[in-house]
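Problem 12. The chain below contains 297 residues. Write out its predicted structure in token notation.
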Amino acid sequence: MTTAVRGAGLGLRRALTGPLADVAPGEIGFLEATPENWMEIGGSFAKTFRSFTERFPFVTHGLSLSIGSPAPLDEDFVRRIRKFLDLHGIRDYTEHLTYCSDNGHLYDLMPIPFTEEAVDYVAARIRRVQDILERRIALENASYYAVLSTSAGDEKSFSRTPAAAPAQQMPEIEFIKAVLERADCDLLLDVNNIYVNSINHRYDPVAFLDAIPGNRVRYIHVAGHYHEAEDLRVDTHGSDVIDPVWALLERAYANFGVIPTLLERDFNIPPLGELMGEIRHINALQARHTPAQAAHA
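Solution.
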């Protein structure tokens, strides 16, 4: 597993293109773009995006691949992604281990059942995407709010209530590991999603993180979320990162070494100076886990 970036990164949002225009690579080690927001635009937006790809290393994180969809894989879309990546010299393409379409866009990232059949289905589609892109891709462990399972009558049921929690064919972590292995792809590790899911589905986030195959982690996402209730967190990317999520990030560095880490902020975007405070915190955690000899190499 290799990645073309290092350090602490920031998601490029249009609201940030002005504030970031005069920022040189340094504390911000790389930027992440959503291809669907940039790949078929022209005029001033295209020129602005090009100015950033010429100055910063980039990764991409898509929204529309719908890798778990029942609908056929949109190979024309994948080819357009490849054209965009090649145009801007971007190696890393990541997506969500979810689906978002079936005879139309669902406008949400839906969970995939944790079953052997789903592992085989998704892994085959990932391999096809990698063949078209001629790149190894990374899938992100997703946040989800209902467990999709198969009952004894082979009917789908949803629940997030512990007393009525449906049996799963395999735990979430085993599903993720099986997909990575059979598809021979990488993982975009989202530590905030681990924390959110651990609250919503009642599991130990540290044990989950410790079970991640570190050799497959391409890079890491860290973000804030919304505290809806004591037993419900919503993955919003609209607030500051909280201490338990920072602690999971530091645990990831302790487990796997220092891995490039991106701060996600999608709305309620504060002034760049406030975001830079969180970027500096990532840099500080990475420095804490970087051996002295490597830091001065």
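Discussion. DSSP finds eleven helices and 14 strands in the chain. Students who got a different answer should revisit the alignment rule from Section 12.3.
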